[in-house]
User: Fold this.
Amino acid sequence: MPTYLTLLRYTQTGIQNVKESPSRLDAARQLARSLGADITAVYLTMGRYDLAAVIDAPDDETIAKFALAVGSRGAVSTETLRAFPEDEYRKIISELP
Assistant:
């Protein structure tokens, strides 16, 4: 299953209600599961982003649905990156022309 890194930033609403963030994370985990995805790790971060999540999802369409659904709730904005594990990275590089 592909892995994705989702970088999150609190919106004004999200930071004003930051104490609700753990319950929002629980709801996001349930949403991910309902779509066939799994949030495998979440980190509170310092810098440009407030949180980073590692998510396994069956395909790009599923992760897009997840990100749109989470973002539409208004507490965070997201940026999602497809992450290739080292073995896939090595294979991709080895097959370059």
